[in-house]
Amino acid sequence: xxxxxxxxxxxxxxxxxxxxxxxxxxxTPKRNIGQTTIDQIEQMAFQLDMPFSDLIxxxxxxxxxxxxxxxxxxxLFNTLLEDLKRNVAQSTPADLVEHIVKAIGYKAYVLKAxxxxx
Length: 118
Description:
Layout: H1 2-14, H2 19-25, H3 35-48, H4 52-57, H5 59-62, H6 68-88, H7 93-104, H8 106-117
Helix pairs in contact: 1-2, 1-7, 6-7
């Protein structure tokens, strides 16, 4: 699971049109952006003939049907992605992975998840 999560971040950062990876990472670690919201965004993107990732980036403009609190969470996620994208070009693969893990708080997320399983 951990490898697939981080690889999904890397894949998305290298190819922002990778909707499958974006859907995997939008709530990893937990951001309280549920499947219903993801489905709603996907439907809006289809109706607007807009890529899913572009709609994420303009959620405040196009996502008025989504509650303000959830739009805020999506905006924060988009800001995180934009920050990560700035590091892609000048990072080695190892540095990029390390930066992603730190930026998203993945270690704490995995440790918490492991504690909940026991």
